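Propose amino acids for all 396 sites.
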């Protein structure tokens, strides 16, 4: 058969076989005419496909923006907080949150608060503050207020929002020392949120290295790693955190304790990621491109880091969004129990330690407000992780 015809004569023995491969440039669009929308999808990169899939998850997008704002606020905590972290108002101890008003006696005044009258309830011994409707105090914006040392580098006193002159602005009330709760929550976000990022960094390094080696080599090393992971996962988390945190010397400074808690959280949370990395590498190490890299002389370190780990990087990113809230909850729990961070370092867990006394909480419930950002951040990370997990496989 030649040229598609059954009666075409065959070439003579030893003669060069003719070929019918076209030497014209190949145009993939000539095979099947694509619409502009189809062409946009077919020619898009993997990262762009993931971004398009992620944008369809509206809740995840909103949570991502919320988390971005929260982490951005930690860079300028001093500017956002109306007061310095350690400013005390001894005349306004346990002051209730002040409401922001816009209208006074039917006329628009702008954001303002009323002055307060103080009275001690002799039956409950509760400090009671009532609004003085005749005392209008306008809130100031982009102003000079309490002095602070920005990131410990230089002195400044600029704030986005300041209390009125000869007045106060307690959006979330004050604590037992007369310190503004809103300002302390803003400052506490810097510690509570960054401790999760540092802890995840340590956890990822341990999980990827140990899990990667176990999945790539297998054998006795894999068996030892799996038994170690099983032992760590069988231990209850909170008592283990408490035991490790309690061995830190009381003479350590707050900064050293901060890094100690971070290392503890990172060391104890690598097991789940290590198993995920191991299972992925067990499945990928037999792929053709891995065998090709081995035949070309690539060492195991390059094969794992350059060829295997990037293959499931989207899974690692999604895992990080689940692990970070675990770190935040761990720090909050340890600090609440008095085994984590200690003053003068301020975190959400340290602030919640003030709410351990049920009698105080019954009289001054705003001391529980630091739990609100903890709940919002945990929920945001979980919804954000759901969106990333769906976007990790854009072809579904």
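Proposal:
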């Amino acid at each position: 058969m030649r040229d598609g015809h059954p009666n075409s004569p065959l070439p003579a023995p030893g003669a060069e076989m003719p070929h019918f491969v076209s030497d014209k440039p190949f145009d993939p669009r000539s095979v099947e005419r694509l619409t502009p929308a189809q062409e946009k999808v077919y020619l898009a990169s993997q990262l762009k496909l993931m971004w398009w899939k992620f944008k369809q998850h509206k809740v995840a997008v909103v949570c991502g923006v919320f988390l971005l704002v929260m982490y951005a606020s930690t860079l300028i905590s001093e500017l956002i907080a109306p007061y310095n972290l350690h400013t005390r108002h001894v005349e306004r101890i346990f002051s209730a949150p002040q409401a922001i008003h816009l209208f006074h006696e039917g006329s628009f005044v702008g954001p303002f608060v009323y002055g307060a009258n103080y009275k001690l309830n002799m039956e409950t011994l509760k400090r009671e503050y009532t609004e003085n409707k005749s005392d209008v105090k306008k809130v100031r914006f982009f102003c000079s207020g309490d002095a602070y040392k920005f990131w410990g580098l230089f002195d400044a006193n600029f704030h986005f929002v300041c209390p009125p002159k000869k007045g106060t602005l307690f959006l979330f009330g004050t604590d037992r020392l007369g310190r503004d709760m809103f300002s302390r929550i803003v400052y506490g976000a810097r510690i509570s949120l960054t401790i999760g990022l540092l802890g995840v960094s340590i956890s990822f390094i341990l999980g990827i290295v140990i899990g990667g080696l176990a999945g790539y080599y297998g054998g006795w090393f894999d068996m030892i790693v799996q038994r170690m992971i099983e032992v760590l996962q069988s231990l209850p988390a909170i008592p283990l955190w408490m035991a490790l945190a309690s061995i830190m010397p009381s003479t350590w400074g707050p900064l050293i304790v901060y890094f100690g808690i971070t290392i503890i959280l990172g060391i104890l949370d690598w097991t789940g990621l290590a198993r995920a990395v191991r299972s992925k590498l067990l499945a990928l190490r037999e792929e053709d491109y891995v065998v090709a890299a081995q035949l070309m002389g690539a060492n195991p370190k390059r094969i794992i880091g350059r060829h295997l780990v990037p293959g499931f990087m989207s899974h690692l990113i999604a895992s990080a969004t689940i692990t970070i809230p675990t770190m935040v909850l761990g720090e909050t729990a340890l600090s609440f129990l008095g085994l984590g961070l200690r003053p003068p370092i301020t975190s959400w867990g340290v602030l919640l330690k003030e709410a351990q006394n049920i009698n105080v909480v019954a009289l001054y419930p705003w001391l529980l407000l630091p739990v609100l950002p903890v709940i919002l951040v945990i929920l945001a990370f979980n919804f954000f992780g759901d969106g990333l997990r769906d976007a990790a496989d854009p072809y579904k």
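The mean pLDDT is 83. The first helix runs from residue 36 to 42.
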